[in-house]
Amino acid sequence: MATTIEYIEYVCDQIRGTGEVRYKKMFGEYMAYVNDKPLLLVCNNTVYIKKRPELEKLLKDADCGIPYGGSKEHYILDIDNAELAREVIAILEPITPLPKSRKKKSE
User: What are the two backbone dihedrals, phi and then psi, of residue 91, each rounded to the nearest 5 degrees?
Assistant: First the structure.
């Protein structure tokens, strides 16, 4: 089951106030960005976050899962807990680099 538009919009609503929030459809699923940094992977109406040492203590009791075949294990974020979600964003946003811009091929 692919992520619904209603679910990705709910995810973004839960993290509003943490910066400029947007989402982008990728490979049939979604990536949620804060300040143009890719922070939350949303697959099958489930929110995944890359395992980082900075999150170990906060998410020690969180479920884990694999968002898509071939990926590494990620934390599953309880997005219904808006306070936790915002705390995770507050940790991740400063340490996540902006994606490198892709140069268009010139002809």
Answer: -80, -45
